[in-house]
Design a protein that fits this description.
about 80% helix
């Protein structure tokens, strides 16, 4: 189970940094991180970091289509926790 928490923590740090960087680039009208990439990072386990970034950095927190996909990734993870916890017991 520790590996799962470590994976969530690591991916959350990466995802938070990507949100922060995208927000910074958005302000400077520079290069952007595609929304698809942000969603894939959340799906890969970075959704807690994405949620924190949406609140603290205030990025992508008002865009309804983005939020729908984001919360679907959270639901996928929550639904998969029983399966993941079973893997951790083996």
């Amino acid at each position: 189970m520790k590996w799962l928490l470590g994976a969530y923590a690591g991916m959350s740090l990466v995802t938070f940094f990507c949100y922060w960087l995208d927000k910074r680039w958005a302000r400077s009208r520079g290069r952007r991180i595609p929304e698809k990439t942000l969603h894939l990072l959340a799906l890969a386990g970075g959704w807690p970091g994405a949620l924190l970034a949406q609140r603290w950095v205030r990025h992508k927190n008002r865009k309804v289509p983005f939020q729908i996909v984001f919360w679907l990734t959270v639901a996928i993870h929550v639904a998969g926790w029983p399966w993941l916890s079973e893997l951790g017991r083996r």
